[in-house]
Each structure stands twice: as structure tokens, then as C-alpha cells.
Amino acid sequence: IPGAAEVLGEKLRAAVAHEPLDGHEVTVSVGVACSRPGREVDEDLADLIADADAALLQAKAGGKNRVVVSE
Description:
Strand content: 5-15%
Number of strands: 2
Strand order of the largest sheet: 1-2
Distance between the termini: 13 Å
Shape: elongated
Structural class: mainly alpha
Number of helices: 2
Oligomer: single chain
Order of helices and strands: HEHE
Radius of gyration: 14 Å
Low-confidence stretches: none
């Protein structure tokens, strides 16, 4: 599933980059995280959001307009 989520994030990023907004280039940074099997839903959700947020910050720090998957 992480691969599928990364592919979807990349499709979104590319689609937005392909369509200027009022003549301006638009970029998208995406942070991807996947749930871990066997974890409690509440605990896993908090971890999932934190992992996605960390991946998003990494994408932005890496130059923006990119997809980063949490490890």
C-alpha cells in the first residue's frame, strides 16, 4: 500500500503542477504515511498523522513540489 499511496501523491502533484492558476505556477508537497497492522486505532491514528506531518515537512525542506513517504 505505501507504493500505491506514493503513486497517488505523485499523480496529484503532477496534475497540479501541470495546470497554472491565473498564470502562476502552483506546486504541491505531499507527505505519505501508512497504517501499521495490529495497532489500536486511536494510537495508530495519532502515529499516522505524526508520520504524515513529518514526511510533509521533509518534502517542503527538500525543495517543495515533491512526495515523501514516511519510513
